[in-house]
Design brief:
The protein is α/β, with parallel strands linked by helices. Helix content is 38%, strand content 20%. The two termini are 15 Å apart. Bound molecules: uridine-5'-diphosphate. Pfam families: AA_kinase.
Length: 238
C-alpha cells in the first residue's frame, strides 16, 4: 500500500456482465447506476477500474467454435475498450474526470497504459479506467486487475459480482446448505477450488499479500460502500 498522500486507493474490477446487465452489449441504465455510485466516492478515495468484456466476446468461447485463440482473445480485449468508453461517458455525465488507459494502443480513444501517469491522475481525483486487459492473449481481466492493483499500489482489489453477494462454501444457486463466508484466505480458496477469480489472479494476490473484497453489485449503494471500505461481502487475505 502506498501511504503517500494518505488516501485509500482501490482497484475495482467490473466484469462484462456488469455492463451488459446479463445481455450482449451495453445496458445504459446499469452502467449509469454504477457510474453514479463511483462518482459518490470521488475526492475521498482514489479509484482505478479494470473492465472486463464478457458481455461482448470471450476468447476461450470463440476458439471453441473454431476461431484462432489469440485472434479471439484480441476481440475480447477490444470489447473491454467499448465498456471503458461507456463507463467514461457516464462517469463524466456524473461530473467525474476520467481517463481511459488502454494496453493496446488506440490513441484516438484512450491513453496508453502508463502506470505512473495513472497514479498521477488518481492523485488529481480522476478515475482511471484500464482497458484492453493486459494486451496479451491467454490472460483474463481478473489477472489484469491483480497486476494493475499491484503496479499502481492499490490497497485492495474490489471484485464486483453480479447475482451473488460474496464467497460461499458452495454454489448458493445449487446447494441450499451453502454458507456465506465473511473471511477467507487465498490458501483456503485455492485448496477448496473456490473460484472467486481465476487461479493466476489469486496466486498473484497471495504471493504479493494483496487483499481482495468480493461483493455483490445488487444491494443499494454497494459499489460506493465497497470503495469507501465498509465491511461488505467477503474479504480474502493471505
Ligand atoms: N482478454 C485477453 N487478455 C487479457 C484480458 C482479456 O485475451 O489480458 C480477452 C479474453 O479473450 C477474455 C476477454 O478478453 O475472455 C474478456 O475478458 P474477461 O473474460 O476477463 O472479461 P469478464 O469475464 O470480466 O467479463
Amino acid at each position: 500500500p502506498d501511504e503517500v498522500g494518505g488516501r485509500r486507493r482501490v482497484l475495482l474490477k467490473l466484469s462484462g456482465e456488469v455492463f451488459g446487465g446479463g445481455k450482449l452489449g451495453v445496458d445504459p441504465v446499469t452502467v449509469r447506476g454504477v457510474a453514479e455510485q463511483i462518482a459518490a466516492t470521488v475526492g475521498k478515495v482514489e479509484v482505478a477500474i479494470v473492465v472486463g468484456g464478457g458481455n461482448f466476446f470471450r476468447g476461450a468461447e470463440l476458439s471453441q467454435s473454431g476461431m484462432d485463440r489469440s485472434r479471439a482473445d484480441y476481440m475480447g480485449m477490444l470489447g473491454t475498450v467499448m465498456n471503458c468508453l461507456a463507463l467514461q461517458d457516464f462517469l463524466e455525465q456524473a461530473g467525474v474526470e476520467t481517463r481511459v488507459q488502454s494496453a493496446i494502443s488506440m490513441a484516438q480513444v484512450a491513453e496508453a497504459y502508463i502506470p505512473r501517469r495513472a497514479i498521477r491522475h488518481m492523485e488529481k481525483d480522476r478515475v482511471v479506467i484500464f482497458g484492453a486487459g493486459a494486451g496479451l492473449p491467454y490472460f483474463s481481466t481478473d489477472t489484469v486487475a491483480a497486476q494493475r492493483a499491484l503496479e499502481v499500489r492499490a490497497d485492495v482489489v474490489l471484485m464486483a459480482k453480479s447475482g451473488v453477494d460474496g464467497v460461499y462454501t458452495a454454489d448458493p444457486k445449487k446447494d441450499p446448505d451453502a454458507v456465506k463466508l465473511d473471511r477467507l484466505t487465498y490458501d483456503e480458496a485455492l485448496l477448496k477450488n473456490i473460484r472467486v477469480m481465476d487461479q493466476t489472479a489469486m496466486t498473484m494476490c497471495k504471493d504479493n499479500k494483496l487483499d481482495m473484497v468480493v461483493f455483490g453489485m445488487e444491494g443499494e449503494g454497494n459499489v460506493t460502500r465497497a470503495i469507501l471500505g465498509e465491511t461488505i461481502g467477503t474479504v480474502v487475505t493471505v
